[in-house]
Amino acid sequence: MISNKEDRMNAFQHFAAQHAALHARHVLDEPARRAGRRPPSDIERKTFEHVRAHGGRTVAEIANALGVKSPELYAPLQRLKTLGHIKPNGTSGAITWKAA
């Protein structure tokens, strides 16, 4: 049990110093992980340019045009969709992508 006011201030100051140190380390050591905070990857850039120029294509058609396999495009397409650059068009089984 803390006995006097001076000890309570020291405990609070200790807590505040630890909190500040943890917050400073988090800000400096870990990258921001929000959508849009990092620059686009090469595949994202190519995918966006292709969709903008040739809207209305399926994932398979985009992958064929870019020379990659379809699974490689799912993450870039979702990120571009989250950022609002592209949007899906159609129903399941026939989804095509177009610029927003």
UniProtKB/TrEMBL annotation:
- Which superkingdom, per the lineage? Bacteria
Q: InterPro entries, from UniProt?
A: WH-like_DNA-bd_sf, WH_DNA-bd_sf
Q: Which named protein is this?
A: LexA repressor DNA-binding domain-containing protein
Its ancestry begins with:
Bacteria, Pseudomonadati, Pseudomonadota, Betaproteobacteria, Burkholderiales
